[in-house]
What we know:
Elements: H1 2-17, H2 19-38, H3 49-76, H4 79-85, H5 90-115, H6 121-148, H7 152-173, H8 177-183, H9 198-226
Helix pairs in contact: 1-5, 2-3, 2-5, 3-5, 3-6, 3-7, 5-6, 6-7, 6-9, 7-8
Amino acid sequence: MQSIIAIFIKQVQDILKNKGVLLQAITFPALAFVLTNFVELPHDIPDSMFISLFAIMFVGLVMISNSATIIAEDRERKSLRFLMMAGVKSHQYLMGIGGVLLIFALAVGALFAAMMPGFSFMERLIFLGSLMLGAIASILLGAIIGMFAKNEQSSISLSMTVGMLMGFGPMVAAFNETTGRIFSIFYTMNFIYHFGEYSNMTRSLGIILTNIAVLAVVFAWVYRKRGLRS
């Protein structure tokens, strides 16, 4: 537990020094708010479209990039090797950095949920809950990228490429049936912002949780294989 707390505190200090990360917390919700309130949409498009799209982009792009950069930086500075030699397990390390990122995601996700037009309190909670599950998946995916990247610079390139795919893919998939089938297995395509039948909601949650489980197993394996090669 002490290891998790120490990693958590260190990461909080690093994020507070990073103005770029703090700017991300403002930019995406601000763009969603402006476009939702000042752009008139056709009648067949829900008013929540811009909020949903920017929420997906935030979780799929920003969270992957932040997670990958943090871990790649730890590897480049040899601090991850030190932690592993000190007996820090993969889940302890991930809980330390992931806890900070999840708090960050919760704060931004709450802004998106609060902006959802015409949603009840319960619907906002369900929407926020699905975003948080997606954030967990993105943190894991970013962590895997950070472990594979040669250095911090290469992690930025790799995470941005994967993040663009995961963040913008669902927007393209919404207008293309073939692409929609491909992206239907990924968590960013299954956030709950259209409240239809509960069977669809259950399916979406099942897909997100499956993504999380697979990514967690992959990260644990990569952590053991590559952590000491930092």
